[in-house]
Structure formats: structure tokens, C-alpha cells
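Batch 3, record 17
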Amino acid sequence: MNATTWSADKPIVSLRDVHKSFGDLEVLKGISLDVMKGEVICIIGPSGSGKSTLIRCINALNDIQAGSITVEGQEVHDPRLDKLELRRKVGIVFQQYNLFPHKTALENVMMAPVLVLRQNRSDVEDRARALIRKVRLEGKEDNYPGELSGGQQQRVAIARALAMNPNVMLFDEVTAALDPETVKEVLVTIKELAAEGMTCILVTHEMGFAREIADHIYFTDGGVIVEHGPPATFFDNAQDPRTQEFLSQIL
Amino acid sequence: MEPVWEWFRWLYDAHGIKLTIFFDEWDRGRFLNGIWTTIHLSFVAILLSIAVGIVGAWLQMSYLVWVRRIVEGYIQFFRNTPPLIQLYFFYFAVDSALSDSFGITGGVMGSYGWAVVSLSFFAGAFNVEIFRAGVEAVPRSTIEAADSLGYTRLQVYRYVTLPLAFRVCLPALNNNLINLVKTTTVAYAIAVPETLYISNQIWSDEYNVFEMMNVVWVVYIVLVGCLVWFMYRWEASIRIPGYGQ
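Prediction for the assembled complex:
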């Protein structure tokens, strides 16, 4: 399957038997999953089970040793791949926000469209202001990341990723570093995004949120997908003993 | 200004303190030229050495081993040899080697030019190390964020790594630039008419070594003081609200 033959009835993101090692340590041991356009999937599992690595492989921040990952039919780990093309399609939000500390909230959102996509500065500014309103940070445009709370920074990071107009959004434990009271504001933003039809792949520890938002849950442990299914079946009727044990510990 | 000059003439007549650079027009002219040469030389060498530092720190991140080795060799060479010898090397050896191979008569550059080159390479070697330390202090995750937004390596360096690294390494850069201004006095050795060289001429002509030595102290304290003041102002102006405090 290549980019020219991809159509919306095929998975927008597709992983086939993905293997990933850090040196001798094999972190992903054959992961396969499909995500359709507009779908929201949550990847859950114990720490160190390879969730973050998995999500980072999808936009080629990590390379893979075997298997295949395609986004809109394009092989991500093809050495001839235009990384810019991939990265304008796939946005990522990190656990530690990773904003540019020397740029204001507005500049953080504007930089990539101006520098990378070479779009007109005043058009980008209009869009960036709209995105900042969308994540409910109106009035914080000129604040530096250091002047914002964790939850506010994370919402700027979401706006920054959205400014590239991605087709897929990756969320890597985006609430894990936040205070409990600010978790909600970030989750609300993601929920709105999902409701608008954005394809979202989330790694999360927020089980209630996953249950509410996800179309499909994947449970990973030891580098493999142990079990997956729609939230209702997954949470209420888990089959695998490892899943049951994990759920009993956190629910 | 005339009354001031007259006061210094009176100081000489009444107390024998012979500051000819104030009341003798010829001495005053050449001394001001000397100070101007020092300022000029310092300024150009500061800018060039910063450029060397920025480019060197970038090259040290190269994937090519031999590029990194050349930069490392350059740093070790210029950091571990005396600046006076470097200056002689450029002025005498490099200049004549270049003149011979390109058939240029009368030398490639004058003493001022070679002083700029030599001092820029000297301070630049330290600047590469200073900038590299700053670059290494930028969190990997911040660079990754830029990477995930499709920035090229050069864009990451220019818009993310370097501005953040700069803020980290300004105090160390400050030190090195102060050192550079002080080291401009080695240009004396190849007859660049900078402050020390001119002062020496004046005290030879006027037999006022003691007075001129004190003047030279004051000149360098003021020059370095201006640089330090400027660097602090700069540091304050690029401080990011809510960051690194």
C-alpha cells in the first residue's frame, strides 16, 4: 500500500508486527494495530511496557528494527521518507509539554507554521490566536511558558501541535506530570478535539477518561498487546489474567 | 576643555606630575588613537570569536568524525599555546607562507589584520567549548519537540538550541571576552598601535613611565568595566520571565 492508493476507508495508522530494541533490550515485541480516521484509541498498561516508545515510533522519533508502520499508507520508517511530510501529518504532545521556554505562548504556536511550512506570518498569527482561544487560554498569548501552570503549558503544547494542521494526534501521557486539579482542563481540550473528528492515539493512565473517550482500548504489557477491545467490553469483561490484575490494581 | 588641559599643565609645573597626554596636543592625539585601536581591535575580535564559537559548536555536533576531530584539534592547539606565540606564528610564519605561495609582495595583511585573526582564533577556541557546554545544557526533550514539528537540524540549532544555550553560557562567555580584551595587549609585540604600544612610545619620549603606567591601568579598568556593564545589561535584557530562576 502506498500513499497514492490510500483512501479514508483504510486505516490511517497501521502497525504490523513492530519490533523495537534499545541495544539488547527488546521493548516492542511484535505490535500490530489499526486506527481508522476519526477514531480515538487509548493505549494503557504498566510502566515500562513500551507504551511511550510505541507512540513515538509512529512519528519516527524512535526508529524500529522490524515490522511496518504506515500513516495514510506511507511507510514511516522508509529511509526515503520525507520526514517533514510525516510530521505535518502527525502531531505529538509530550508528558513534559516541552514548550520553547524563550518564546511566548503565541510564538510557540506560530513558530513551526512560519519556519517549517513557510506560511504567511499574519495568517499564521490569526490562526494561532484562534487556537489559543480554542484551548481556553485567551489573554495568555504573551506569557512565557515559565509564567504558566502545567495545565496551561500543556494546552499551549496542544495548540502548537494543532497549528501544523495534523491529521493524527499522538498524546504521550499528557496528564501524567500535572496536578490533579489541572488534569481536567487538559482532558476537556482533548475530548473536544476527539469530538471534532480528530484521529487521536493516547497513552494514558486516566482510566475513567479512556473509558469515556476511546473507541478502542489496547492493553500492553512486556512489549506485546495483551488484550484489546471497545471500552465497555474491555473494562467490564477483561479476559486475560494480566489485564484483570492490572485493572484490579488501578480501578 | 581648555581649562582642563591647563589644569594638567599646572599639575606638572607645580607638582611634577607629567601627564602630557592631557596638555600636549600631539601626545593627546596619539594616545586617543591608541585607545581607539584597542577598542576597535577588541570589538572586531569579540564578534569574530563569537562567530567562531557558534560555528565550532555546530560542527562539533556533526555526524562526521573527522569534522569533530578537526574542531577538537583546533581547540586543543589554541587553548594550550601562548597567545603571543600564536600572534607571531600568524604575523611572521603564516603571512610569509601565504605571500610566497600566492606571489604577493609586501605581505597578505598588516599587523592589525593579523592581530584580529590571531586573537579571534585564540578566544574562539574557548568560545567553542563555552557554547558547547551551553548546547549540552539544552534538554534533549525540547529539541525533540522542535524535531517533531518538522524543524531541520539547522533550524533547531538556530531557533531553539542556540538561544537557550546562549543564556546558559553568558557568564562563561563574559569571562572569556574580558580575557580577550586584556589579551589585545599582546598586539604590542607586532607594533599594532594600541594603548600599551602608544603608552610605551609616550613614556620613552617624555620620561614619564610612572604616570603612564597609572594611566594604562585606568584605561583597561574602564574598558573592561564597560564590557562587563554591557554584558550584564544584555544578560538582563534576554532573561526569560519565569525561566531558570
